[in-house]
Amino acid sequence: MGAPNNRTLKLGELEQAALASRLIRPGPLPGVEGLSDQLLCGDAIKLIPQLPAGIADLIIVDPPYNLSRTFGATEFRESSTDVYAVWIRTWLPGLRRLLKDDGSLYVCADWRCSGVIQRELESTFHIQNRITWEREKGRGAKANWKNASEDIWFCTADPDRYYFDLESVKLRRKVIAPYRKGGQPKDWEQTERGNFRRTHPSNLWTDLTVPFWSMAENTEHPTQKPEKLIAKLILASSAPGALVFDPFLGSGTTAVVARKLGRKFLGIDREESYLCLAAKRLALARVSPEIQGYSDGVFWERNSTPPAGRRDAEG
Ligand SMILES: C[S@@+](CC[C@H](N)C(=O)[O-])C[C@H]1O[C@@H](n2cnc3c(N)ncnc32)[C@H](O)[C@@H]1O
Asked: Which residue is closest in CA terms to ligand 1's atom 22?
């Protein structure tokens, strides 16, 4: 028996069968309109070349890292950096054709594969930045530093012309030394909950919580990303109504956050069971569009007190 407040999303056999019938399978694919808000079950390496050119305003990629790990029925095997680079070349350059000329692409990585991913990105995209985010989870090492961070490479198709909505991702931080000018707060806001300032977001993110069993967004996918993290990428780099594509969708985080934020999505994964979780999360997103840690247009600091009536704002 799980803990009483374990909110991990699980599917029964009948529910999974019903959700599986909604997935698009390999075969002749529909056009752009028919691919909007869809989940494609199949091999991304085969499907990417079949998708329409320029379909995506934003692409978010969370590939298997260069580690041995089982995803559903398939095992991904750790290999040499050279072999991993060859594997990246089977899908990464193809993403440029799918991305609009003013579009952006983000690629997730851990410290081991970040360098090779950077090298491969350089030949196809313009790298704008590397975001590093703190992941609190993870075991300590006996003779090494505990691994507690991951990277996200931010790239664009064009070096200068791309969408970026800075205002939507500004951070709300507590003011330590509330400076006043003429008796009035200087660039900060006085509220009942304390004094806050909206600051420019940096490429170091320390406000995220990796999904765990008491969070509503948690599923049994082994490497699920936090909705709050994906929300930052989508808000900054896509306009409302834009299409966000994710070729390694897993449990559906990119699609779910796209829906919650009024964007369209297209996702691929070759594991049917993960796409069924995604389909279930997408249905739930229609009734519960909250994103843990983001409410009222504000990204709250990790474990900050949620605003009244917002149980899910912590995180
Ligand atoms: C790191 S996980 C993505 C997790 C996802 N961001 C989430 O929040 O749930 C990578 C996913 O890629 C899928 N995958 C690996 N190789 C694939 C391929 N060739 N085609 C499609 N999906 C693949 C795996 O099944 C796995 O779910």
From this structure: 269
Q: How far is the CA of 70 from the centre of ligand 1 (A)?
A: 10
Average pLDDT over residues 232-249: 98
Mind listing the pLDDT tens digit for each residue in 100-152?
999 999 999 999 999 999 999 999 999 999 999 999 777 788 999 999 999 99
Residues 6+ apart with CB under 8 A from 8: 2, 213, 218, 219, 220
Q: What is the chain's Cα-based Rg?
A: 20
Cβ atoms within 10 Å of 273's Cβ, excluding its own: 18
Domains of the chain: residue spans and CATH: 13-166+203-313 (3.40.50.150), 167-200 (no CATH)
Q: Name all residues whose Cβ lies below 6 A of ligand 1.
A: 43-45, 62, 64, 71-72, 221, 223-225, 248, 250-251, 253, 268-271, 274
* Mutation to probe ligand 1, out of 270, 272, 277, 291 (largest number of atoms < 8 A from CB): 270
Q: How far is the CA of 63 from the centre of ligand 1 (A)?
A: 6
Which residue shows structure tokens 């069924």?
Answer: 276
d(CA 134, CA 204): 8
pLDDT at 304: 64
pLDDT tens-digit series, residues 64-75: 999 999 999 999
The model's pTM: 0.94
